[in-house]
Amino acid sequence: MIRVCDNPLCGSRNHLRAFSQALVAAGGVDERPQFLCLAEWTA
């Protein structure tokens, strides 16, 4: 049960990081998390 709940959260963090990296690559601003702690952002 824990794995079922953790997998979507991990996917969401991966999508957030990918979006942030795409913004930087496109010449945009370096997006930093406002609601997640740094440990959650980099996990």
**How many domains would you count in the coordinates?**
1
State the end-to-end CA separation.
Answer: 20 Å
> Number of helix segments?
2
Coarse structural class: mainly alpha
Description of the molecule:
The protein is mainly alpha-helical and 43 residues long. The chain has one domain. The protein contains two helices and no strands. 0% of the residues are buried. The mean pLDDT is 75.
Keywords:
43 residues; mainly alpha; 67% helix; 0% strand
Summary of the model, kept short:
With 43 residues, this protein is mostly helical. It has helices at residues 2-25, 38-42. The protein has one domain.
Which helices and strands occur, and which strands form pairs?
Elements: H1 2-25, H2 38-42
